[in-house]
Design a protein that fits this description.
By secondary structure, this protein is mainly β. The protein is built from one helix and ten strands, in the order βββββββββαβ.
Length: 118
């Protein structure tokens, strides 16, 4: 599955929302993707134009122009029956630091983060 967005919006630690780490985007076709995790939770919640679903064992790769989310085949229902979601983005280089920190906060202890930024 693939989507294109102009901007990835990230917040590594929203103190007004109990330190929630959140990354979201809206595709050029109006689809919404949201991934969140509270620091005291063991699972990550993903929302893709519907109800949020909790899962663990995610693998996320960030590059300057692409965000790749991979899930286990058993969790493919969260990504509309696909085991991955590729988000092509146009985020500014200075925003990637906050996006990367957000992904690290979301995945620490529950998934794998891979950086292709350097």
């Amino acid at each position: 599955m693939q989507m294109t967005t102009a901007l990835l919006m990230a917040n590594p630690c929203d103190d007004e929302e109990d330190n929630l780490a959140m990354l979201c985007c809206h595709s050029d076709k109006g689809e919404m993707f949201l991934i969140t995790r509270y620091p005291d939770e063991d699972e990550v919640e993903i929302t893709l134009d519907g109800e949020p679903l909790a899962l663990d064992g995610l693998k996320i790769t960030l590059s300057p122009t692409r965000l790749l989310i991979e899930v286990a085949p058993d969790d493919a229902d969260v990504l509309n029956d696909s085991d991955h979601l590729e988000i092509i983005h146009s985020s500014d280089a200075d925003e990637l630091v906050e996006i990367e920190q957000t992904l690290k906060n979301i995945l620490t202890g529950t998934g794998t983060y891979i950086s292709e930024l350097s």
